[in-house]
Design a protein that fits this description.
Blueprint: H1 2-14, H2 68-88, H3 93-96, H4 101-111, H5 114-125, H6 130-138, H7 159-170, H8 184-192, H9 198-206, H10 226-232, H11 236-244, H12 258-270, H13 279-294, E1 309-310, E2 319-320, H14 322-332, H15 349-368, H16 374-391, E3 395-397, H17 406-412, H18 415-429, H19 438-445, H20 449-458, H21 463-473, H22 478-483, H23 506-514, H24 530-535, H25 539-547, H26 561-570, H27 578-586, H28 594-606, H29 608-617, E4 633-635
Parallel strand pairs: 3-4
Antiparallel strand pairs: 1-2
Length: 637
């Protein structure tokens, strides 16, 4: 199960879709915002710190007061430091002690991560590649880095790549001695560049001293030879030709092999939902997958759980959702689950012995790098999480399609109203991703307002989105838009929260104000621009709006700014600047309700120091279990 979660997590990162989904939401160091699915679209990965400097023995440690933020950051930093141990430790001497490569690989997996283990194993098996051997002579001068699609671009390539591409386009096969001799990595470069034809690649491949030689460790993780490169980019005919020339299929139970690269190519064609790709191309790729299976190749697949079909090498080269597996079966009659799978080696007594030996060294390394009291802090965080879980057990509610009234949702939990509005607003904003709307925005950007007006007359439902996009990105154009009648009467300040800009900055608000926009204008829900500042927990923007006397709002069926701020701090964990933001809002002397006190009680539980700072200044917000209850419902995260 752990491997499955890691793989899914990596795949989601690759897609830019990080959603934290545990019972206790992780605090995050970035701005929080509600998105379409009533979740918080956040980068939940804590900030990457450099390896901590070694702490002198006589240097007192800073007092550690656990909060969700601090515990998550501590856990990340500690794991990062543990991983550094494996990056900086030469493990090859253990091979001379009688341990196998499998023992070392399994030890790294169990003590760190599968990805770290795969990296070590891939580097180890490529150590005698021609380019690595050449670099021992030439001091690492020969660079051929083809880690992914971006390296295939001539605008992001190294000198060696440019050299071999120039040779190929001129039809000149390199001859001579190193460093100008042709290497397998050079041929891989040509294979990965779609502008180079197969015939040219064949000429270069035949000129290699050893066509079956290994690629260097600068190549994409898991790519062992030029055959893997050909399969990865879908040059299946070339791959068959290479096999006839003697390039062998080489698979590894931990790293994967040719069949995994073929499945990666399938994923590139159809996507994780299996709905993409031209039928002809997909059919051809499935036939090649069957061809490799006929050659007794196996795939390195994670244990089947919840219907996902996922690569299990830690690098997550392919990732099919359950609906993707079903779509491929329905469209092409092909069952991914029938593909033969590798069975990796399992832990032995030798593995355990090695882990014991490495564990002591790792602990010393971790202690020397600033974590001498790691065990104590881990215990503190464990107790803290147990205490939070004991008191706060909310039900996470999906209200996107709810038909309840705002008042009914508000009475259950005020944020449920905001979450549903966010969901509906996201659907409205999706029009901005359509090919029909983009030309309208382009015309607006270019100042061709007559063209915009004509298009919006035919599709008036797009006017609100256009208005907000223009005000957000070009606030000084407000007078021109007014003159052309391109300002919607139906404002919705959620349009300013797109998950990236997350509200209007103080600078944008200044420019809007200078351009004549009335900052006191309320949107369709009766909200002032205070909403955008709190939605982003943007203290600078909020301070400016308060200085401009932007009105407070406190409807009876939706969150007011103070509740919104307390909710983001206590429930969503964005307590940075919470004291300052609450102080600004309390200047309006809002009516304190039970809902506010409930969030304060949760803040007290999760972020006691922030709670104390607020209550010391604003005693009316003091809360305890006699006057409040822990929130029982909240939006699904």
């Amino acid at each position: 199960m752990r491997g499955m979660v890691v793989v899914i997590g990596v795949a989601l990162v690759a897609c830019g879709l990080w959603f934290y989904a545990t019972v206790e939401p992780v605090d995050n160091t970035t701005i929080l915002t509600e998105n379409a699915s009533d979740q918080v679209a956040i980068n939940s990965l804590p900030k990457k710190n450099a390896l901590p400097a070694t702490r002198a023995d006589n240097t007192p440690e800073e007092t550690f007061i656990p909060t969700t933020n601090r515990c998550a950051q501590f856990r990340y930093d500690l794991n990062h430091t543990k991983s550094k141990f494996f990056e900086q430790t030469d493990l090859t001497p253990y091979l001379d002690k009688g341990y196998s490569a499998d023992d070392i690989t399994l030890a790294i997996i169990l003590m760190d991560s599968r990805l770290s283990a795969v990296r070590w194993r891939d580097t180890y098996r490529k150590q005698f590649s021609p380019i690595n051997q050449a670099n021992k002579i030439y001091g690492g001068q020969i660079k051929s880095d083809n880690r992914g699609w971006i390296s295939r671009s001539p605008f992001a390539s190294d000198a060696r790549t440019r050299w071999v591409l120039k040779k190929a386009r001129a039809g000149e096969v390199p001859v001579g001695t190193l460093p100008d001799a042709l290497l397998p990595d050079d041929v891989a470069t040509l294979i990965l560049n779609q502008s180079i034809g197969d015939d040219t690649i064949k000429q270069f491949a035949l000129a290699l001293d050893d066509i079956n030689a290994s690629l260097g460790d600068e190549q994409a993780l898991g790519m062992l030879n030029i055959l893997d490169a050909a399969i990865w980019v879908g040059r299946n005919d070339l791959a068959r030709w290479l096999m006839k020339q003697g390039v062998t299929l080489q698979s590894d139970p931990f790293i994967g092999g040719p069949l995994d690269f073929a499945l990666d190519r399938l994923h590139q064609l159809v996507g994780m939902t299996g709905s993409g790709g031209k039928p002809k191309d997909v059919t051809r790729q499935l036939a090649f997958i069957d061809y490799l299976i006929g050659l007794e190749q196996q795939a390195t697949v994670a244990p089947f759980e919840n219907g996902y079909f996922v690569n299990n090498t830690g690098r997550s080269s392919y990732f099919f959702k359950p609906e993707g597996v079903s779509s491929i079966l329905e469209r092409f009659g092909y069952n991914l689950f029938a593909i033969p799978k590798t069975i990796p080696p399992t832990k032995t007594a030798k593995t355990t012995q090695l882990m014991d030996e490495l564990s002591a060294q790792q602990q010393t390394y971790v202690s020397d790098n600033g974590y001498a009291t790691a065990i104590k802090k881990q215990a503190q965080c464990k107790d803290y999480r147990a205490n939070v879980k004991h008191h706060w057990k909310p039900m996470f509610i999906d209200v996107g399609e709810s038909e309840e009234t705002d008042k009914s949702l508000f009475n259950r939990a005020p944020e449920l109203v905001s979450c549903r509005r966010s969901y509906r607003n996201f659907k409205d904003k999706n029009v901005g991703r359509t090919s029909e709307f983009r030309p309208i925005m382009t015309s607006g950007i270019n100042g061709n307002y007559s063209s915009v007006a004509s298009a919006l007359n035919a599709a008036p439902e797009w006017l609100p989105l256009f208005t907000h996009r223009m005000l957000e990105r070009w606030p000084k154009r407000y007078p021109e838009l007014v003159n052309m009648g391109l300002i919607s009467d139906d404002l919705n300040y959620l349009f300013f929260d797109d998950g990236i800009t997350r509200g209007l900055t103080a600078s944008t608000l200044h420019k809007l104000n200078e351009s004549g926009f009335d900052l006191h204008t309320l949107d369709r829900y009766g909200r002032s621009l205070l909403f955008t500042a709190i939605q982003a927990m943007n203290l600078e923007a909020l301070t400016f709006l308060v200085e401009q006397n932007v009105p407070y709002y406190q409807p009876g069926d939706a969150p007011d700014p103070l509740y919104q701020a307390l909710y983001f701090a206590a429930t969503r964990g964005h307590e940075q600047n919470a004291y300052e933001i609450v102080s600004q809002l309390m200047s309006y002397q809002p009516t304190i309700t039970q809902a506010h006190l409930n969030q304060m009680l949760l803040l007290k539980l999760r972020f006691r120091q922030t709670y104390d700072n607020i209550v010391d200044t604003f005693p009316a917000l003091a809360s305890d279990e006699d006057s409040a209850v822990y929130p029982k419902e909240t939006c699904r995260l």
